[in-house]
């Protein structure tokens, strides 16, 4: 039967069972002390790493890695706890060999995560603490892990920079093909429409003006030639009449001379006169005929000249029509060529921009490689710890002692609360409904005491005795 107890009763009960409470407390303390003493010593080694800002700045070189190195502090714990970094450290320094052989690399990585602590300090530094039972190993791991993290980070950044350069290279090749295609199309377009291009418009207009001027000149030459031919035609008619008259007169003189010779001799004056007139007439006829041939030749030349001029004029008209057609087609081809040139300029501008960005990306990649060694600076390397960080043996012993005392006290209280023994008159009055007539003390070799109880107290149910020595 359980019952409530006051503090005084608890103290009395513990004192009454002091041997049991002490034994239990000693046993619990012995177990706790054994646990504390037998736990292996764990040493902590800490290194502090500063992340140096990147140089030069963006105003000098355009970065191709979008993430600032300082921003990696936001995720430095997750990255240091990542499997690639921890696995590389485990393999490189042969950590947890038994765990790796029994449960594999994943179990070793999980255990290393438990032994590793990362804390960001300020805006550009972090603190790495590694715990191990071997102080030498703890210091080596604490100093090596930042280097492995830096190597992996720099590999990632260099890979990003290299990918950016490769992307610009591929884009540049693609745009170079596009620019070449547009150049070929524009060149072929100019070949197909040679003479009708916008840049040839002024030349065509000048050529058309020159042809118009030449047409006017040739038209004037044609007019002069036609007038000449008309004059020659009129002269031919006149010349033909004179030659005919002279020929008719010569024929008449010939007949008269023949008739005179039949009548007279050669020495006759009439015969000589007729002979002389015939010779003069023949000479005139020949002169007239010679002039007629020359005039015919002149007329032929005039006719040829007119024909040539007309041919030239016809050719000039065709040339004028050609140049006029070119001028008429120029606006159409100018629009199409303008569209092609616009697309070509867009492609060429993109190409030049990508070429410039590629050069900047290559420069950024080179600077990334050159400045990689100075991005992570270990400002406080980990030393070999001389004192174990865990366990805290003094604190453990103190806690064990407190737990032992608590268990002993609790055990004594529980036993007392479950003990139904009655030890004094007060308990009798509390636990029994009957009146207490007398209390016999436990003498146990002590001086005899006499207890007298007046009859009046008995009648009134008062159980407090009067002790007499």
What fraction of residues sit in β-strands? 5-15%
The top-level CATH class of one domain is Mainly Alpha
* Largest sheet data: 4 strands, antiparallel
Low-confidence stretches: 57-61, 448-469
Q: Structural class of the secondary structure composition? A: alpha+beta
What is the N-to-C succession of helices and strands? Answer: HHEHHHHEEHHHEHHEHE
- CATH topology of one domain, by name, is Helix Hairpins
Give the count of helical stretches: 12
- Number-wise, the strands total 6
Q: For the residues shown, what is the average pLDDT? A: 76
Describe this structure in words.
There is one protein chain. With 469 residues, the chain is an alpha+beta fold. Among the domains are: 198-368, Helix Hairpins (Orthogonal Bundle), CATH 1.10.287.1700; 422-469, no CATH class. It contains twelve helices and six strands. It has helices at 7-16, 18-38, 76-80, 83-93, 97-103, 105-115, 135-192, 201-263, 269-370, 393-418, 425-431, 455-459, and strands spanning 43-51, 116-121, 125-132, 376-380, 450-452, 466-468. The strands form two sheets. It has a four-stranded antiparallel sheet with strand order 2-3-1-4. A hairpin with a 3-residue loop joins strand 2 (116-121) and strand 3. Helix 7 packs antiparallel against helix 9 (269-370) and helix 8 runs antiparallel to helix 9 (269-370). The longest helix is centred in the C-terminal third of the chain and has 102 residues, at 269-370. It is rod-shaped, with a radius of gyration of 68 Å. It comes from Hyalangium minutum. The chain crosses the membrane at residues 394-415. Residues 208-235, 271-298 form a coiled coil. It is found in: Cell membrane.
